Amino acid sequence: MRYQNAVDNNLTEKATYYESRLIEMNEPTYKVGGMEVHTKKLGKITQHNIVFEKGSDNIGSDTLRIYSM
């Protein structure tokens, strides 16, 4: 909630701090529609795991993994 508030109010330093705390706690950094983004720092590389919720056919969720520097 604090992270999203900082983003909405263009408070970039606070947003960066709250995002780092979410990452440390292994909490989703974003929740949008039917997906959650979990971010993990791996040294100089950041891993983003985008988890999509189950579809109407009730088949398991899918994950897309993206790496950034």
Can you write the helix and strand succession as a string?
A: HHEEEE
Could you say how many structural domains there are in total? 1
How confident overall, as mean pLDDT? 81
Percent of residues in helices comes to 25-40%
For the biggest β-sheet, the strand order reads 1-2-3-4
Strand content: 35-45%
Our measurement of the CA-to-CA distance between the termini, rounded to an integer number of angstroms, reads 26 Å
The strand count comes to: 4
Annotation field: number of helices = 2
| Spans where pLDDT lies below 50 across 5 or more residues | none
CA-based shape: globular
Q: Whole-number radius of gyration? A: 13 Å
Largest sheet: 4 strands, antiparallel
The chain-level structural class is alpha+beta
Account of the protein in words:
With 69 residues, this protein is an alpha+beta fold. It has one domain (2-68). The chain has two helices and four strands, in the order ααββββ. The chain has helices at residues 2-8, 12-24; strands spanning 28-32, 35-42, 45-52, 62-68. A four-stranded antiparallel beta sheet has the order 1-2-3-4. Helix 1 runs antiparallel to helix 2. The longest helix has 13 residues, at 12-24. It starts with a helix and ends with a strand. The mean pLDDT is 81.
